[in-house]
Each structure stands twice: as structure tokens, then as C-alpha cells.
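Q: Here's a chain of 162 amino acids. Please give me its 3D structure as C-alpha cells.
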Amino acid sequence: MTVKEYNKSVDDFSDNVYRFIMSNIRNEDMARDIVQDAYERLWNNHEKVDARKVRSYLFTTAHNRMIDMIRKRKYEQQVDETPEMSASYHDDQYTDLHEILKEALQNLSEIQRSVILFRDYENYSYKEIAEMTELTESQVKVYIFRARQSLKTYIGSIEAVI
């Protein structure tokens, strides 16, 4: 990978990587750090990385770094003393679908949230997701299916939300 290709990757993918990380961790400083770390690792390995695989390399690196940071944060935190939210929304007064979806996504496991966001928010193929998450395509499909089922259960019927 050349310096020109590296700079092009910054222009082409940094916003997408940042959005993906932000949708998972909701912390701007951590998201910036993760994206910066991904690009630093790309630069350190630029001679080994094929320019055609930069996007996959960046998302994989950022995803793995994000999981490391989440695990570290969980390890450092005491048991969260806040009560769990209710399992679903059936209140006719609550109509903020975007907020409900964000909360529902936060209830998914890290890997389910990641594959759902890659597939449904970033529009990556199963094969690309498998490469980025180091899973098989079959595992990706299973995680996506289970995540969608969990979201469906959490949200309930769309009529109850709208």
C-alpha cells in the first residue's frame, strides 16, 4: 500500500468506521481513539496490507479494538446498579422509534450488535462481514437471524410502537 492509497483510505472510510463504532459504544472520545488506532495499525502494516482489502482491514481492526475496550471497561466497572429496562414497549404514548431501536440494539450481545450494524446499517455482504469479524458466513447469518429475533421480541409489534 502506498502513501497515496493510505490517504485515500482515510478519505473513503474514516467516516464509516467512526459511525460504526459510535453506533456500538456511544462514546465520541472512545470512538475517535478506536478509529485513530485502526489507522495507526494500518500505517504500521501498510506494506503488508493489500490496497483492495483496506476497508475490511480497517473495520476488522476497529471492531477488534472496540471489543477489547468494551471488555476492559466491563472488567474495570463494578456491577451496574441501575435496574434493567422493561423487556418491550407497548405504551401507546411512546412513539420515538429511533430511540427504541437504539435501546434495543444496546440489549444485544457485542457480536450480534456488530453484525446487525454491518449488515443493516452499513450494507455489507455476509462474506464481507465474515472477513471483518473473523467468523464464517454461516455464523454471521446465524448471529444476524438471532439478533433480528431478539429485536423483534424486544420491540414487539410495530403497531404498538408507532
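Q: Can you summarize the key feature?
A: The mean pLDDT is 79.
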